[in-house]
Amino acid sequence: MFLKLAWLNIWRNKRRTLITTASVFFAVLLAIATRSMTNGIYENMIHNVVSYSSGYIQIHKKGFWDEQSIDNTFEENKQLSKSLLENSNIGHLMPRLETFALASFSDKTKGVLILGIDPEKEKEVNNLHEKVVQGAYIETIYDNAVVIGEGLASQLKLKANDTLVLLGQGFHASSAAGKFKVKGIIKLGSPELNNNIVYMPLQQAQYMHGAENRLTAISIMLNKSASIEKLQSSLQKELDMDTYEIMSWKEMMPEMDQFITADSTGHYIIIGVLYFIISFGLFGTLLMMTFERSREFGILIAIGMKKRLLAVILLLESLMISFIGCIAGILGGIIIVKWFTKYPVYFSGELKEVYENYGIEPIIYFSSDEKIFIVQTLIVLILSTILTLYPCLMVMKLKPIEAINR
C-alpha cells in the first residue's frame, strides 16, 4: 500500500518529479562519463604499451629480466603454449624474440628495439596491419622484410621499400647482421615505441641472431574479465619456477604504474568535488519538493496521520524518483560511452605534444567497463538516499498548525 501511495504521489505534480529526476539523471550521467573517460585513457595507455611489447603478463627464462640478453632465451615449447591456451582467462599468446641492435640507413645510425613477432597473431591482437601509414604489412613469419615505427623512419630519413641495415649481437656472442627491406611504416599509440621499434618476422629474427626456435618471452593477452593478479598466481603454481619467471606489466613497467596511480589520485579529487556538487544539486531539489508540500504534510498530520508513516512514504517517493533518474542516467551513459568508443576524440596542437611527452597517445577513449556504471550509480543512489533523510527529519519535527498557515 505504501509503495502504491508513494508512486501515485510522485506523479501528482509531474513538473516537480521531472525536475528532481533530471537532477539525479544528470548526476549519474556526469559521474559515469567522467569515470569512464579517465579509466578509458588509462586502459588505452596500458594497452598501447603492453600489447605491442611486454603483454599484460610475460613468461620468460628465469634471470632474463635482470640481464636482458639474447643468451637468456628459452626453447619454444608447443606443449607449454597448448596448456596455456587451455586457461579460460588467456585470450592470446604472442611468442617474441626481443633484442637490441644498431639500425643504419645512408649516413644515419640509431639504436633500436628489434621485436621478432608472429605477424598473424599480432594482426589478431593489435590490428598491427591497420597501423601501417606507408607501404604494406608483413605477410608471414618467413618474410625477409621489416616494419618500423613512423618516428624511427623520420629520424633515419627512410621510406617504405628502402633497405635497413641491422647490426647486433647474436646467440652465444655470435655476430648478428643483415639487410632488410622496409616493407611498411607504422604509427603506434606509444610515442616511445614509435621512435624505436623494428618489427621483424619471428623466423627471420631467430635466423639473424643464430637463435633458431628460441624465444625471449611469451607475452600473454588476457580476456576482458580476467584478473592479472589471479592469473599470475595460478601460472606460478602450474609452471616450473626454477626454469621460468612470470611477471605482470606492473612489475616490468613500474614507472607507468606509478604515473597512473599518481595521476588517478588527482582524478579522485575531481570526482570527489563532482559528488559534492551533485549532492548540493540533489539536496536543493529535495528541499524544494519538501517545502512545496509542507502545507499538505501539515493537513495530513492534523487529520491523524502519524509522522513516522509520512516520513516513510516521503523516503519511498525519493527512492523511486532517484531510481528512475539512475536508470535514465545509465541509459544516457551507455549511449555516450558507445558513441565515444566508436568515435574517439583526437587531440591536436600543444595538448597533443603534452600527451606525447608523457608517452600517452593523444586520444580520449571511454571505458565500457560495467563496474563503472554499477559503482557510480550506486554512489549517486546512496547519496540521494542519505540526503532524503533530512526532509524526513523535517517532517518528523513539523508542527501541523504552522505548516497549514504558511
What does this structure look like?
With 406 residues, the protein is an alpha+beta fold. The protein folds into 2 domains: 2-48 and 257-404, no CATH class; 55-252, no CATH class. Helix content is 54%, strand content 20%. It has helices spanning 2-10, 14-50, 78-85, 119-126, 150-156, 191-194, 202-208, 228-238, 249-252, 254-292, 294-302, 307-342, 349-357, 370-396, 400-404; strands at residues 57-61, 74-75, 90-105, 108-117, 132-135, 145-149, 163-169, 175-186, 197-201, 214-215, 217-222, 244-248, 345-346, 363-364. The strands form 3 sheets. It has a 6-stranded mixed β-barrel, surrounded by 4 helices. The chain has a two-stranded antiparallel ribbon with strand order 2-10. β7 (163-169) and β8 form a beta hairpin. The model has no long low-confidence stretch (mean pLDDT 81).
